[in-house]
Amino acid sequence: MSxxxxxxxxxxxxxxxxxxxxxxxxxxxxxxxxxxxxxGGVVVKTLYLSLDPAMRGWMNEGKSYIPPVGIGEVMxxxxxxxxxxxxxxxxxxxxxxxxxxxxxxxASFSAxxxxxxxxxxxxxxxxxxxxxxxxxxxxxxxxYFGLLDVGQPRPGETVVVSGAAGAVGQTVGQLAKIxxxxxxGIAGGRAKCDWVVSELGFDACIDYKAGAVKDGLKEHCPQxxxxxxxxxxxxxxxxxxxxxxxxxxxIICGAISQYNNTTPVQGPKNYLSLLVNRARMEGIVVFxxxxxxxxxxAELAGYLKDGRMKSKEDVVDGGVQAFPETLLKLFTGxxxxxxVLKVAQD
Amino acid sequence: MSxxxxxxxxxxxxxxxxxxxxxxxxxxxxxxxxxxxxxGGVVVKTLYLSLDPAMRGWMNEGKSYIPPVGIGEVMxxxxxxxxxxxxxxxxxxxxxxxxxxxxxxxASFSAxxxxxxxxxxxxxxxxxxxxxxxxxxxxxxxxYFGLLDVGQPRPGETVVVSGAAGAVGQTVGQLAKIxxxxxxGIAGGRAKCDWVVSELGFDACIDYKAGAVKDGLKEHCPQxxxxxxxxxxxxxxxxxxxxxxxxxxxIICGAISQYNNTTPVQGPKNYLSLLVNRARMEGIVVFxxxxxxxxxxAELAGYLKDGRMKSKEDVVDGGVQAFPETLLKLFTGxxxxxxVLKVAQD
Lengths: 346, 346
Hints:
Number of strands of chain A: 15
Helix content of chain A: 25-40%
Strand content of chain A: 25-35%
Oligomer: homodimer
Order of helices and strands of chain A: HEEEHEEEHEHEHEHEHEHEHEHEHE
Number of domains of chain A: 2
Shape of chain A: globular
Largest interface: A-B, 32 and 32 residues
Distance between the termini of chain A: 19 Å
Largest sheet of chain A: 7 strands, mixed
CATH class of the largest domain in chain A: Alpha Beta
Structural class of chain A: alpha/beta
């Protein structure tokens, strides 16, 4: 009890909505005391936070798949933590949990808020804390349901995935290999490309910083592209559209190249390739599959265990103070693997 | 026999590939004698030709869903005709046929060519000659399979169709009404809009020449848009993307606003609405459904017979000489109903 009273909860709040790339001025740092949980409530110590491209969208005003973060609110973030205090039978003190903790050192939840935050216990025997934010977390679920449900891959098909070394990309590519597909990644830089081929087992990877993506697709997808899992949008999406096969599926998961635009989003000018090829372009939002997460986690944890799937997290050990700068790594492509902010030692 | 020898077959051939809107210089007029059919062959007198937006695409070089028309070749065109001479048991002299006749007064086919041209007998009790080029022909088939197979409408959903008074649009809208949907058209001009509402029974029609399409969608689609059947592309596609519902289906049938562009096609800058709304955009090419045409024709002929479906053809009585100018009416939006060129009296 006295433990909680001694804690100062450092937080990062959204101070203003950015135009283009977020700057330090868009954030406010606050400190709050920590109170005992109410009946049915729980208090969680944040250990690791997931930093994701989608965060940039949550900072904008306007209708989207979830409401924007309000001005003055603690920035939304998924994370892994440990229960510090509990008045809820589901969450024993000391157990590990995952959910929407926010960019703060301590997250307190009422019984209602537990549900809204999607707070759930996690089993560290299935994966490490950072793997629970990667292949066993939202990115993994996004890759799993995006590829399998929307993409419906068949053995022998060619799957191309952009952001190949990123959180979603690594799950998509490895899962497509497991399902019997030819897999070609697109990533920025030799190191990332080498890694997805030599470590993750992709058939090839195109370094978009080193040469024309079009030439890479011609070389590495001699049978054309059956599935394109798009995390980036922009020119790369347009280029892949010129190489798709009949009845191809393009999964729109994100468009990181466009998120900090101050000009209008660049629409895919080659979209009529969908017509010529009777192809389809479809969006995925992972929350729609929440009732099937446990099955997907079990399958993916099995692959981690038998070594068919690997994961790489880029862990920045900086605490919540480092959140603003760390987030920007996603947009420069500086991160290598799923970007995670370490907030506290377990 | 002497009848054929006395005929001069006037033809329109592609002389050069247009940049932007086709001009008279892109065409060549030729005259050829007509020979007796070989064994298994047939000679057909062209009565009506179908003029379609897709023709503009066939004039371009490059890979598409069918090869381009070659320079010097008779321009490809679907049409209805009457058999003048036959050495094929399937086609009696005097019977009416439909198929790829080309822009010429007489079409001669070997046994092989009959198949490639998709030549088939038609029954004028099911529909008139021009209806066989409209609701019972390619536009009708495109609307039928695009709406039902790709769009999968459910009763009560809101269907928006652009080019509403055009060949495909009129089938789509009326069929969607029959299937229990709310139907809102988009067309150019008061006359077309009034007609699709009062004659075809659409719930509303937005005149894109008279005001903002966005305002029209807000007013007439208060429950949002579940299915958008797109014949036009460009700004209208982008505007509809801002009004789609979760799990919406966008059928990409054409992009007539972009076909004569000399600048790159305008990509839908609001395509990320597909992501936010878990929606899908999918292309349709009617030829994929050829084995199911007879079923669709039977269903649509039934609706024509019982009065639930009407059709309107804009018949230009100009002969093949009038082909170049008549085609342009599609791109100015001057045609009212399915554009048909009358080549000869039956």
